Amino acid sequence: MQLRSAIAFTILTHAAFNGSRVAVSLFALKLSASPLTVGILMSLYAALPMLLSVHAGRLMDRIGTRKPVVFSTLCLIIGVTLPWLWPHLSTLFFASCLIGTAFMLLHVAINNIVGALGDAAQRTVNFSWLALGFSVSGFLGPMLAGFGIDTLGYTNTFGLLATLPTLALVALWPKIRRLSQHKQRMSVTTNNPPPRVMDLLSNPRLRAVFIASGLLSMGWDLYTFLIPIHGSHIGLSASTIGFIMGMFAAATFAVRLLLPLFSGRLREWQLIAIALLVSATIYALFPFSHSVSTLIVLSCVLGFGLGCAQPMVMSLLYAVTPAGRQGEAIGIRTTVLSTSSTFLPLASGALGAALGVTPVFWLLAGLLLVGGWAAARKGWRQRTTPQR
């Protein structure tokens, strides 16, 4: 029951978050914003999470997740509602900060809840179900944003998106009250030194997981940033762009449904290597794609590649994290992802404004290729060791 509630809550809140990214990007372009300005807006989604994720994870290790979930959902509702009430470019800057920070808290809390359910053998299955929920919301959010803009207009689309977390909070409130009531999982006494981030970062197995998470986040987040710009440049409508991005999410859903069939044959690092290498290839091809059908095919293949990696990353993260510090480890991972999401859109926007988006696609492809090669080496070593 907790798992189903957590997944349902994730679908509604993440759909609002993901849809707002598309709506903010396209609304900013409608208001004559440059690619650099759009990059700044996308970076603001991750700016405060970059600084606060570790503290949020430690807080949840101590007090549980119920209060952070309720507080962050309320903030998400307010953030998505602001552009509906005050439809100005300046409003988008504040809304991006609030929406991104609110969903960071939700992301840490939900992953903490799901990771605490069941034993180690059940954990990968639970994260696979949660990943399916993210795929559903990843499809629903851009689709609602794209078709909402074309039918209701830009400002009313934000009002539509705000109904999703509102529904989550109202309908699932009885379940939220019982979510993850365990507290004080990590013993904190005067005899124990306070936890340090470097204790986790100095662990080579954890550090490798954080790096892989950052690269995969680059592939995911820059897709959300680059495709609206590329689609606008080649004359696609908002609903078409939303549909293309929705097909990417549908592909991540499909591959996660199939994940149990081949996860027993391929180890975690092998799947991560495949995801990175496939993503590198697709990003190298995107600049040559100017038709809707080609963009749909490439987006689906990219969704297949990236979609299979996230459950493996979370399974690895929990497997190598010291007991009682899972929330902190999720916070560090979120910080890595947020750092990537903060600086990469900003740098990509500046590079795109100066040279166009094609060099951004190719630079990202090169980084993913290097990461895929390193992950393939780990996958080969993992293949020679016994299964856990």
Mind explaining what this structure looks like?
Helix 9 runs parallel beside helix 14 and helix 11 runs antiparallel to helix 13. It is globular and about 50 Å long. The protein has 15 helices and no strands. By secondary structure, it is mainly alpha-helical. The chain has one domain: Up-down Bundle (Growth Hormone, Chain: A), CATH 1.20.1250.20. 55% of the residues are buried.
Layout: helices, strands, pairs:
Layout: H1 2-30, H2 35-63, H3 66-85, H4 89-116, H5 120-152, H6 154-171, H7 173-176, H8 197-201, H9 204-233, H10 238-262, H11 268-285, H12 292-307, H13 310-320, H14 326-355, H15 358-383
Helix pairs in contact: 1-2, 1-4, 1-5, 1-6, 1-9, 2-4, 2-14, 3-4, 3-6, 4-5, 4-14, 5-6, 5-10, 5-13, 9-10, 9-11, 9-13, 9-14, 9-15, 10-12, 11-12, 11-13, 11-15
Tell me the CATH topology. Answer: Growth Hormone, Chain: A
CATH architectural category: Up-down Bundle
Largest sheet: none
> Regions with pLDDT < 50 over 5+ consecutive residues?
182-191
Shape: globular
Q: In which range does the helix fraction lie?
A: over 70%
Distance between the termini: 28 Å
Count up the helices: 15
Order of helices and strands: HHHHHHHHHHHHHHH
Helix- and strand-based class? mainly alpha
Q: How many structurally independent domains?
A: 1
